[in-house]
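Try this one yourself first.
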């Protein structure tokens, strides 16, 4: 399980250090793709395969299912962690998530998320204002 928030930077070549606490669970190779809310999702290979199986079960006769599968799979790429603990993020994903210099890497249960620092701060502030309401709307969830 991934949890926590870490700040790292991305260099001009698109390389970013993966937090040491995440590296073992992610493995030497893992998949990154476009996520929701303009961030990048990162999945260990076993979690990626589970997600891939779920997406394969979507009814491709439905326009929304086709659109989501295209969005998700077209941005996916397998990355390798180098000896310095870095991955190389493709320019298409850097552009999608508006990554510039400062990044925030989040552990979110079975995946990681990579955010532009400013985007994360804005999202967090907006969500924090309605956190109580969001929690109330999650049926059957108790802390």
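Now uncover the answer:
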């Amino acid at each position: 399980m991934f949890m926590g928030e870490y700040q790292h930077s991305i260099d001009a070549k698109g390389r970013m250090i993966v937090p040491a606490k995440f590296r073992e669970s992610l493995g030497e190779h893992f998949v990154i793709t476009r996520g929701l809310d303009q961030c990048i999702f990162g999945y260990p290979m076993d979690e990626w395969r589970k997600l891939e199986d779920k997406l394969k079960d979507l009814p491709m006769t439905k326009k929304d299912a086709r659109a989501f599968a295209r969005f998700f799979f077209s941005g996916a790429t397998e990355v390798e962690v180098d000896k310095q603990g870095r991955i190389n993020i493709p320019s298409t994903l850097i552009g999608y998530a508006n990554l510039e210099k400062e990044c925030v890497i989040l552990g979110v249960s079975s995946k990681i998320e990579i955010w532009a620092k400013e985007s994360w701060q804005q999202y967090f502030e907006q969500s924090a204002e309605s956190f109580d309401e969001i929690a109330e709307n999650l049926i059957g969830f108790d802390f």
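Discussion: The two ends are 18 Å apart (CA to CA). Strands lie at 2-9, 15-17, 29-34, 40-44, 77-80, 86-88, 102-109, 111-116.
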